């Protein structure tokens, strides 16, 4: 980390709790807070005291987000039309009202693209209480960026004790994505995803604080330095979600 760009504090937000890791400190100093079902309101109260002058990165547990691959139909060309397609798919796949979700995507009219939906009320709380936040994104999105910097084809898996998110890329395009509570048998689950994607289940790049403990044939464990702190904090948060 450059001396002119101090290491930021790190906020991790899960479905029922959040964690705050001050910059320049060991993981043992991180504080974990149960925010329960009233997530946005309780998160606002917890973060109000951290508002002023904080350089912070915000990483969201994959369970907070919804990921989907969208295949635009014939004649869909404008951004408003693409947004309407994503909104319809969000409702169809997850039964969600798209008006309550903020949608970001690799908007494309001629090929499949990845979309990510995040709760609007949660994003509003984070942006209002931490206006100096440098980034706000799910852990999987960070892993995907690291994967794309290495290669354009293959499988990537982001796994915690509580959640697993897998994606298949072809030519740099995400053609399949699935996120769920972590299954007991990751290998069988990945084989199922390969069948759904109609792609071979070849080598998998595993992004996880416990990557070495993920027993998958042909997998490559990786913990990029740029993601080390985020994977650590999200990993601990995941173990706490399971234990709760």
Label this structure with key terms.
five-stranded mixed beta sheet, globular, about 240 residues, 6 helices, alpha/beta
Tell me about this structure.
The protein has helices at 39-47, 79-94, 120-129, 139-150, 186-197, 228-243; strands spanning 9-13, 17-21, 31-34, 56-60, 66-70, 101-105, 113-119, 133-138, 154-159, 163-170, 173-181, 204-207, 219-222. The chain folds into two domains: 9-63 and 120-243, no CATH class; 65-116. The protein is α/β, with parallel strands linked by helices and 244 residues long. 31% of the residues lie in helices and 30% in strands.
SS strand fraction: 25-35%
User: Helical segment tally?
Assistant: 6
N-to-C SSE string, H for helix and E for strand: EEEHEEHEEHEHEEEHEEH
Give the count of structural domains.
2
Query: What is the typical, i.e. mean, pLDDT?
Result: 86
Q: Low-confidence segments, ≥5 residues, pLDDT <50?
A: none
Basic shape: globular
> Could you give the count of β-strands?
13
Radius of gyration based on Cα positions: 18 Å
Short description:
By secondary structure, the protein is of the alpha/beta class. The protein has 6 helices and 13 strands. It folds into 2 domains: 9-63 and 120-243, no CATH class; 65-116.
Topology:
Blueprint: E1 9-13, E2 17-21, E3 31-34, H1 39-47, E4 56-60, E5 66-70, H2 79-94, E6 101-105, E7 113-119, H3 120-129, E8 133-138, H4 139-150, E9 154-159, E10 163-170, E11 173-181, H5 186-197, E12 204-207, E13 219-222, H6 228-243
Parallel strand pairs: 1-4, 4-8, 9-12, 12-13
Antiparallel strand pairs: 1-2, 2-3, 5-7, 6-7, 9-10, 10-11
